[in-house]
Amino acid sequence: MQIVSTIKDVKAVVKKWKEEGHTIGFVPTMGFLHEGHGSLITAAREANEKVVVSIFVNPMQFGPNEDFDSYPHDLERDSKICENLGVDLIFHPTPEEMYPQDFFTYVDMSVLTEELCGLNREGHFRGVCTVVNKLFNITQPDRAYFGEKDAQQLAIIKQMVKDLCMNVEVIDCPTVREEDGLAKSSRNTYLSPEDRGAALIVSDTISLGESLVKEGETNAEKLIAAMETHLKTEPKAKIEYVKVVDGETLQPISTIRPGVLVAIAVHIGKTRLIDNFSVRKL
Ligand SMILES: Nc1ncnc2c1ncn2[C@@H]1O[C@H](COP(=O)(O)OP(=O)(O)OP(=O)(O)O)[C@@H](O)[C@H]1O
Ligand SMILES: CC(C)(CO)[C@@H](O)C(=O)[O-]
Ligand code: BAL
């Protein structure tokens, strides 16, 4: 496994692989890898001859009051995980490598970025789209792997690939959870033991929502109300949103049907957690 930090070095490796006719699977991450990332890497490993993982805490997608400075990192540990999972190349650039002083181009999307997390994280998806576009251009993947835990991000990346006719297949990977249900996330490391207990309300509320839909609830307003009421049983939970939206356009809808995304964002202490489920059939 190679670890490189410059765009030039990645491009040289990718050029050679392409000349040899290899397919490339790409997993973009911000590092501090866990089994959620592991499942993306495993899926990439199974379907492609070469696997590239990027580890880059992208400053452009963090707001001024967000956790860019405290975001966890451990390249040595991440490298071992990647090596064990059969990754061929880690790309670990510096912010200066990705954004030199004469960097002036951004990828902006409307509509999908204006809902859910976009309401409170201004500029976040501009940063995500810009960096993912740049990473795709650098790594030239046949397939790129994204987690359903970040459902809005996944929908936005699919839209970007479609709108801009990008030659990459976006593969969705199911949310990997802790044994008690909490979605795995690098930010779970911020949770104190007490907050970790309280955080369970998030996945619990997702399970409740799924059960209500299975039992026949088709009214989005009622579903949201029931989920909010459940979240409020945990005094440490501060609700940012509970929303029912179309899974592709991310616009709010009133009647639940297959293809709908039910998404929540909740703050537990200083930790912001997201979770969701998709309605596959009624
Ligand atoms: N629990 C999970 N299951 C499946 N995929 C996941 C999970 N957690 C993260 N991913 C995916 O891994 C990719 C990289 O995500 P990232 O490095 O931001 O990890 P994260 O744990 O989501 O971090 P954060 O705590 O910042 O949300 C994204 O496509 C994300 O959706
Ligand atoms: C896709 C991504 C690596 C872009 O920085 C990031 O948003 C993430 O880790 O989900
Ligand atoms: N996993 C999503 C990246 C972010 O929250 O910045």
UniProtKB/TrEMBL annotation:
<feature type="binding site">
    <location>
        <position position="176"/>
    </location>
    <ligand>
        <name>ATP</name>
    </ligand>
</feature>
<feature type="binding site">
    <location>
        <begin position="184"/>
        <end position="187"/>
    </location>
    <ligand>
        <name>ATP</name>
    </ligand>
</feature>
<keyword id="KW-0566">Pantothenate biosynthesis</keyword>
<feature type="binding site">
    <location>
        <begin position="30"/>
        <end position="37"/>
    </location>
    <ligand>
        <name>ATP</name>
    </ligand>
</feature>
<keyword id="KW-0436">Ligase</keyword>
<dbReference type="InterPro" id="IPR004821">
    <property type="entry name" value="Cyt_trans-like"/>
</dbReference>
<feature type="binding site">
    <location>
        <position position="61"/>
    </location>
    <ligand>
        <name>beta-alanine</name>
    </ligand>
</feature>
<comment type="function">
    <text>Catalyzes the condensation of pantoate with beta-alanine in an ATP-dependent reaction via a pantoyl-adenylate intermediate.</text>
</comment>
<protein>
    <recommendedName>
        <fullName>Pantothenate synthetase</fullName>
        <ecNumber>6.3.2.1</ecNumber>
    </recommendedName>
</protein>
<comment type="similarity">
    <text>Belongs to the pantothenate synthetase family.</text>
</comment>
<dbReference type="InterPro" id="IPR042176">
    <property type="entry name" value="Pantoate_ligase_C"/>
</dbReference>
<dbReference type="GO" id="GO:0015940">
    <property type="term" value="P:pantothenate biosynthetic process"/>
</dbReference>
<feature type="active site" description="Proton donor">
    <location>
        <position position="37"/>
    </location>
</feature>
<comment type="pathway">
    <text>Cofactor biosynthesis; (R)-pantothenate biosynthesis; (R)-pantothenate from (R)-pantoate and beta-alanine: step 1/1.</text>
</comment>
<dbReference type="GO" id="GO:0005829">
    <property type="term" value="C:cytosol"/>
</dbReference>
<dbReference type="Pfam" id="PF02569">
    <property type="entry name" value="Pantoate_ligase"/>
</dbReference>
<dbReference type="InterPro" id="IPR003721">
    <property type="entry name" value="Pantoate_ligase"/>
</dbReference>
<dbReference type="InterPro" id="IPR014729">
    <property type="entry name" value="Rossmann-like_a/b/a_fold"/>
</dbReference>
<feature type="binding site">
    <location>
        <begin position="147"/>
        <end position="150"/>
    </location>
    <ligand>
        <name>ATP</name>
    </ligand>
</feature>
<feature type="binding site">
    <location>
        <position position="153"/>
    </location>
    <ligand>
        <name>(R)-pantoate</name>
    </ligand>
</feature>
<keyword id="KW-0547">Nucleotide-binding</keyword>
<keyword id="KW-0963">Cytoplasm</keyword>
<dbReference type="GO" id="GO:0004592">
    <property type="term" value="F:pantoate-beta-alanine ligase activity"/>
</dbReference>
<dbReference type="GO" id="GO:0005524">
    <property type="term" value="F:ATP binding"/>
</dbReference>
<feature type="binding site">
    <location>
        <position position="61"/>
    </location>
    <ligand>
        <name>(R)-pantoate</name>
    </ligand>
</feature>
<comment type="subunit">
    <text>Homodimer.</text>
</comment>
<keyword id="KW-0067">ATP-binding</keyword>
